[in-house]
Amino acid sequence: MLRIVFVHAGFSVDRMASGHSGKLRRKAGEIDRILTRTYGRKEVELDDDPIDTLVETILSQNTTDVNSHKAFRELKRAYPSWNRMKGESPAKVAAIIRPGGLAKIKADRILGALDFIERETGKLDLSFLGSMSPGEVDAWLARIKGVGPKTRSIVMLFSLDMPTFPVDTHIHRVAKRLGLIGSRTSREKAQEEMARLVPSTKFYNFHINIIEHGRAVCKARKPRCTVCSISRLCDYYSTKG
Ligand code: SF4
């Protein structure tokens, strides 16, 4: 199981000590400031129900936000409370979430996750996780089949206000181009490395603004480097620009 790095009063507990790491942290801080000026400061808005966040994240795997939001809306319309999904057939759930793609796999994962939560706790409620340490929450969520490091990290940051740095496909791409992480760094490993670069109080804002930048400017196929506000800090631009 991949270790998620947790932070304590600012930077990661196992701080990086080298000068190179100091430079990277300063660079990340500057990027954070510029992106905040460009896209605005994102205040923490916690999701009310960690199960909602968990299910939404499962639905978001390998599809666009538009499709996964549509699938989530359809699911909530069909089952306004998760209790109503108890004992539902995977085929029926798959038919409802079809707009989100990989419907059968995702239906199995969602039903499996709900089963696990109910079996372990006696009810469909994850609010108890809020009183556990981040490490304990990570280990608990990791026992749910199909719930990987990114999903756990998203649940913890977005619904439990815990200091983790989820890395999705946009953050992974942009961080590599900027040189904040190595070109071969895996997405999972990137969660650890990004968590070391900015203080935990900035995770939420930095996370959302990098995604926004990845969607609007640092696109996967054709990055729009000529209009990029952080091009002078970008390794990709300095070598290819
Ligand atoms: S300069 Fe280009 S590659 Fe670098 S962050 Fe900006 S858009 Fe992405």
- Total count of strands: 0
- The multimeric state of the shown protein is single chain
Taking pLDDT < 50 over at least 5 consecutive residues as the criterion, the unreliable ranges are 7-17
Mean pLDDT: 91
Short note summarizing the structure:
The chain is mainly α and 241 residues long.
Structure, explained:
Residues about 5-15 have low confidence and may be disordered. The radius of gyration is 19 Å and the shape is globular. Helix 2 (about 50-60) runs antiparallel to helix 7 (about 150-160) and helix 8 packs across helix 10 (about 205-215). The protein contains eleven helices and no strands. With about 240 residues, it is mainly α. About 55% of the residues lie in helices and about 0% in strands. The site of iron/sulfur cluster (SF4) has 14 residues, from helix 8 and helix 11.
SSE order and pairing:
Elements: H1 19-39, H2 50-59, H3 65-78, H4 90-96, H5 103-121, H6 134-142, H7 149-159, H8 169-178, H9 187-195, H10 203-216, H11 235-240
Helix pairs in contact: 1-10, 2-5, 2-7, 4-5, 6-7, 8-10
The chain binds iron/sulfur cluster.
Q: What keywords describe this structure?
A:
Endonuclease Iii, domain 2; Endonuclease III, domain 1; mainly alpha; binds iron/sulfur cluster; 11 helices; 241 residues
